[in-house]
Amino acid sequence: MQSLRLLHHYSTVVYPTLCRDDTVEVWKTVVPETAFAHEFLMHGLLAMSAMHYAHSHPDQRRQYVLVSTYYQNLALQYFSTRLNDIDDENCEAFFLLATFIFLMTMCSIADPRDSEEPISPSHIARSFMLLQGIKTILNFRPLRRWREHGPLAPLLQSWAPIKPIHSGPFLLQMDRLSNLARELDTSFDIINPQSSCLLAIESLRTIYHSTREDDTIKCVSRRIWTWPITLSNVFIDLIDKNHPVALVILAHFAALARPFEYQDWVNNQGFPALTRPVEQKDWGNQGWTINIIESVARNLDKGWQEWIVWPQRSVREGIDVEDMDITTN
């Protein structure tokens, strides 16, 4: 009966918090139908629903956190051992499972009440590594085929051409970070600490430009959360190992993402219920960016703290990166 309760909760309460207008049918119909055909996706759906139920029913929170953890473990076990088994019949189910898993990991960072220890860069790195699984799934077939055929097309629409912006506080920060990254030692490996940091910074520039487009806030917010997908495994490993330059770059991503963390989310991030104003914090994302900033601050040596003053102020005071003082470090 518990699984039926959770399935009903997903179908009546959870799915509206996951969708934009053009993706309603995916979360309302496609996901449950696909889950009925693939047990591993049903585990992910039930884990997601149990996590939401725990947040929306405080008196039963402890019980449903345990239920969510149980289903998450089942889903993760399958996901981590079967990525090599992707085919045309199950690739959509794998994509949706990866989405659920990453979403729940992000929610646990945003609201770590059930964690036994403070959020660490290792937690963040693990959540980003899950997106590498999504990248693997998407690479199974050409992206054009995902967009033109199949039930997940609304989730994967391409962006309009981006018009570069050539000045502004955030871009000046990116210039400072690029100069910092170039001071790192290089190696004969194409992707090394220096190149991986520079690539992460350039990707952050691209994401920034995309957020300045004249588009709906929901479409723009989707773009923000593509940045972790673009990261190399080397860069994610640097985050995991508390590399100072990688952590400084991560802090600047948090500053850029802050205005969007309570908006609609397609690539596995924050979900406001459609019945609530977008300014109101949603159930699963009560402070992702502030927890990222605090984690970075805890794990940077004193000599590196000056490098995160700028993003710290942006996040802590709720200042858009475009409204930040250029002279602030």
UniProtKB/TrEMBL annotation:
Keywords: Nucleus. One of its GO terms (molecular function) is DNA-binding transcription activator activity, RNA polymerase II-specific. It comes from the Eukaryota. It holds the Pfam family Fungal_trans_2. InterPro entries: Fun_TF, Sterol_Uptake_Regulator. This is Uncharacterized protein. It comes from Cylindrodendrum hubeiense.
